[in-house]
Design goal:
The complex is a heterodimer.
Chain A lengths: L1 H31 L7 E4 L1 E2 L6 E9 L2 E9 L5 E10 L2 E2 L5 E7 L2 E6 L3 H4 L4 E8 L2 E10 L2
Antiparallel strand pairs in A: 1-3, 2-10, 3-4, 4-8, 5-6, 5-7, 5-9, 9-10
Chain B lengths: L4 H25 L11 E7 L7 E2 L2 E5 L4 E7 L8 E2 L16 E6 L5 E6 L7 E7 L21
Parallel strand pairs in B: 1-4, 3-8
Antiparallel strand pairs in B: 1-2, 4-6, 5-7, 7-8
The chains are: A alpha+beta, B alpha/beta.
């Protein structure tokens, strides 16, 4: 009878130790997971006195990138936006990645490219005045 | 006899739902109370598969006094969209991926020309020409408040 009680105490102790080890391993493993990190943010350059001012942020989402545009729209409620090859000074008209329109100052799009690919050089985010005036640019920024 | 509070609440909820449905029905048919509603006319507009971004066809004519179902089919290798820029406020998804489609239902307020563009590709444009199905008697369809039924 006495031996049985001691056995029980020993078993509980062993289980407690096992749980503690498992918890430690879990914590250690979670610390090894690659962190998504903070978004990279760049500031748009206002063009053509549009009054459009703001930023573009890039956030990793499983190897793809969520591109978020946040601007003071300067009276432009619905502006097409794209990632274009080239630079703001020399833009290729054909977009590389279309973005959701900037509606009321916000656009959120997941594009099929990593942040590193977007920041490798030779790309720019360009914002257009309206759906029926793509020729007029309101803001732009080189992705770098 | 005193009513059970739950039963009373249920009765009130059912009554409110019925009233809401009735009102919704009235609103839905209100602006169309004059004349006979026309059946929707469907048109399909594609994106050309070639290197030059273009709608195909770039000009579409429909004869109707009612709704128009516009099916946009992107058969090209890059993303496009279709956005009406005058007359009606309607647009597909901003990004219609290659090989996919989107669908709009619009109610043109009058006979006339309704231009549309792709906002991804500057210069990619087309036009929807709407003619009254009652042409010949001088009638011009007018739907006043009903301009858009579909996506925007």
């Amino acid at each position: 009878m006495h031996d049985t009680a001691q056995d029980r105490i020993g078993l509980v102790g062993a289980l407690t130790r096992l749980l503690a080890i498992a918890a430690s391993v879990a914590i250690a493993l979670s610390a090894c997971q690659p962190a998504a990190g903070p978004p990279r943010t760049i500031t748009l350059q206002t063009l053509n006195d549009s009054g459009v001012r703001g930023t573009v942020s890039f956030r990793d989402v499983g190897g793809r990138t969520q591109v978020e545009v946040h601007v003071e729209p300067g009276g432009h409620p619905d502006m097409p936006a794209h990632v274009h090859p080239g630079t703001c000074d020399d833009l290729t008209p054909q977009p590389k990645f279309p973005l959701e329109n900037v509606r009321n100052g916000v656009s959120v799009t997941v594009v099929p490219a990593s942040i590193d690919e977007l920041f490798a050089g030779g790309l720019a985010v360009n914002i257009h005045k309206s759906n029926d005036d793509l020729k007029t640019y309101t803001a732009c920024v080189d992705i770098q | 006899m005193r009513r059970h509070p739950v039963a009373d609440l249920t009765r009130r909820a059912l009554g409110a739902t019925g009233t809401a449905l009735l009102l919704a029905g009235c609103l839905a048919v209100g602006p169309r109370s004059t004349g006979t509603p026309s059946a929707p006319v469907s048109v399909t507009i594609g994106a050309a598969a070639g290197d030059t971004p273009a709608f195909e066809p770039a000009e579409v004519t429909v004869q109707t006094d009612g709704p128009v179902v516009v099916v946009f089919r992107n058969g090209s290798s890059v993303a496009h969209n279709l956005v009406f820029t005058a007359g009606v406020a309607a647009a597909t998804r901003t990004i219609v991926e290659p090989g996919t489609s989107d669908r709009l239902v619009i109610l043109p307020p009058n006979e006339g020309t309704y231009p549309f563009v792709c906002t991804i590709h500057e210069g990619m444009a087309g036009v929807l020409l709407v003619q009254s199905a009652r042409s010949g008697d001088g009638a011009v369809a007018s739907h006043d408040a009903w301009t858009v039924l579909g996506r925007r």
